[in-house]
């Protein structure tokens, strides 16, 4: 069989190579543009989502701020309309509401008053509320300090001069002195709910620390003595049909 061969002229070959090169360049440019377009589209979508999220967050923040402002205005109006006795009660019931935001809002309303009488009323209200809040804080501090001092006095016979607290105490007389101190404090009316809260708080802290079993047992004993002296006079609990003394249901 005869073989037929074709021979292209050099000029034709060069022309084809040139066209192929141009097509390749155009293809590369097109691919590059498509990639950039996809990247731009992705960035645009991400940016839109981010803006939408920011707008939603800003909207929620604005709604929350508006809601708080309405609540503060309602409280301010209620306080303003209350008589002196009712004002004290309202301050006690809403003591946690008197934060920085409340005072800023009250100052803003004072500044925007149209009459001097209204402005004077707001200023007097602010002074009254501040005085009541200060009194509440002072009384709370006094009560906490008083309860702490009473507990220290009760525990003093057992822990005084002892490097490591142990239970029962090495000196039997120390326990008797602690019981006498509890009796004396109860007769003086110092074993109130504040004292009970202080003992419970110290006991909870001792359990969390876990490194003072002697102190933990001692505080539990104080609770039992407290129950036998105070709670048994005014309360009892039931377990089934059995009546339990307060010292029983406080025992760990």
From TrEMBL:
<protein>
    <submittedName>
        <fullName>Uncharacterized protein</fullName>
    </submittedName>
</protein>
């Amino acid at each position: 069989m005869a073989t037929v061969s074709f021979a292209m002229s050099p000029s034709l070959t060069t022309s084809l190579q040139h066209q192929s090169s141009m097509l390749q360049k155009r293809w590369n440019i097109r691919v590059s543009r498509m990639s950039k377009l996809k990247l731009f589209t992705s960035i645009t979508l991400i940016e839109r989502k981010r803006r939408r999220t920011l707008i939603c967050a800003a909207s929620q923040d604005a709604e929350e701020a508006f809601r708080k402002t309405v609540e503060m205005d309602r409280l301010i109006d209620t306080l303003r309309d209350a008589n002196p006795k009712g004002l004290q009660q309202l301050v006690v019931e809403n003591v946690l509401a008197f934060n920085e935001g409340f005072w800023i809002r009250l100052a803003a309303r004072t500044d925007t008053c149209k009459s001097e009488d209204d402005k004077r009323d707001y200023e007097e209200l602010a002074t009254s509320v501040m005085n009541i809040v200060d009194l509440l804080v002072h009384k709370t501090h006094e009560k906490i300090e008083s309860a702490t001092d009473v507990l220290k006095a009760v525990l003093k016979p057992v822990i005084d001069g002892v490097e490591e607290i142990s239970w029962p105490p090495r000196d039997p007389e120390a326990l008797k002195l602690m019981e006498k101190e509890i009796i004396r404090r109860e007769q003086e009316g110092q074993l109130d709910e504040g004292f009970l809260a202080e003992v419970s708080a110290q006991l909870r802290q001792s359990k969390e620390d876990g490194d003072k079993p002697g102190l933990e047992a001692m505080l539990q004993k104080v609770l039992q003595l407290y129950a036998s002296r105070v709670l048994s006079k005014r309360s009892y609990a039931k377990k089934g049909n059995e009546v339990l003394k307060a010292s029983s249901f406080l025992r760990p």
